[in-house]
Amino acid sequence: MLHLRVVCPAERTDELLGWLTDAPGVAHLTVSRGAAVSPAGDLLGADIAREAVDDVLAGLCDRGVDRDGGITLEPLDTVLSDRADRAEEAVPGLGSDAVVWDELVGRSGDDAQLSASFLGFLTIACLLAAVGVVTNSPVTIVGAMVVGPEFGPLAALAVGLVGRRRDLAARALRALGIGFPVALVATALASLAAEAAGLVTVSPLESADQVDFIYQVGPFSLIVALLAGAAGMLAMTSSKSAALVGVFISVTTVPAAGYAVVAATLGDWTRSLSSVAQLLVNLVGIVIAAAVVLLLRTRTYRRRGLGRPLSEG
To answer: Which DSSP category does 3 fall into?
Structure first.
C-alpha cells in the first residue's frame, strides 16, 4: 500500500473526506484541521491500495487539489490491518502488478535529467570501458556497465512513447543526444592522450579476445537487449530495483561506445563501426522491449492523462 498525504483548503475538506470515504481501496482516513501552514488549510491522510492509487489521484486532481493544495505519496513496507486487507480486496488486480503512472513518470523523468551527475557517470563509464578494452579486462567492462546511467533515459523514452508524453520523451532524447557525445569526446581525448604517451597501440585491440563480444553484432545482441529492456521496465513498475543491477550488466551500450572511440582513435574503423552498430542495436532493443512490457502491464489510462507535467530541472 501507499500512504497518501493531502493538503487542501479548509472549505474543501468535508467534500474530499466524503469522496475518499466512498472511494474503493482507501483505508485509515485521517484529518488534522488547520495543520497546514503553507498553503493554509487542513491535512488529510489515508492508506491506499496500490491498484487504486491512479483512480484516487485522478479524482483528487479533477477536484483541483494539485492546484489549491498538494498531494504526496510514500510507500508503506508493513501494514497490519483488517481494514487495509479489505481495501485491497475491494479493488481488482494485485498491488505488485499495478502501475502508478504519476510515480513512474516522476521517477523516469528524474532519471532522464541532463544533470552534471548524469554526464559525470556516463563519462566515467565510457572511460572505464575504454580502459577495459585496451587492457583486455572483462571485469573492467562489467564495472563500466554498472556505472553507466543510460538505462534511465531509455526507460523514460519508453514511458514517453507509451504514454504519449512528449515532454518526457524530449527530456530522454536530450539526455541521450547530449550525454553520449560529451562522454565520447572526453573518452576520445583521453584515448589520444594515452596513445601520445605510448600507453595504447593497435595491438591491444587485435589481442583483446576477452572483450571482442563488444563489437561482434549478431542475433543475440538484439535478444539480450530485448530481455534487458523487458526486465528493466518490470523492475521499475514493480519496485524491484535490485533487478536493475542485472539489467545494467547484461547490455553493452557503454562498452560499445567506449570501444568505438578507442578503435576510431587507432584507425580501426571496422571495429569502430561494428561497435557503433552494437550500441544502436542495444539502445533500440531496450526501448522497444520496455515499451512493450509497459503496454502489456497497462490496462487503462486515466482521463486526465498519464501523470502531471514534468518540472524543469
So the answer is: E
Q: Are 312 and 106 in contact (CB under 8 A)?
A: no
| Other residues' Cβ atoms within 10 Å of the Cβ of residue 258 | 33
Residue among 113, 141, 112 nearest 127 (CA) = 141
CB atoms within 10 A of CB 78: 5
- Note whether 142 and 249 are within 8 A (CB): yes
Distance of CA 17 to the CA centre of its chain: 34
In the chain, where the domains are located: 2-98, 103-297
Place of cell 578507442: 262
| Confidence band for 162, pLDDT divided at 50, 70 and 90 | confident
Domain spanning 2-98, CATH architecture: 2-Layer Sandwich (3.30)
Count the alpha carbons within 13 Å of 292 in the hemisphere toward its beta carbon: 12
CA distance 35 to 30: 12
How far apart CA 141 and CA 128 sit, in angstroms, is: 7
pTM, whole model, 2 decimals? 0.78
Q: What is the pLDDT of residues 11-37, one digit of tens each?
A: 989 989 999 988 888 999 999 998 888
Alpha-carbon distances of 312 from 100, 107, 140, 168, 269, rounded to whole Å: 21, 14, 35, 11, 40
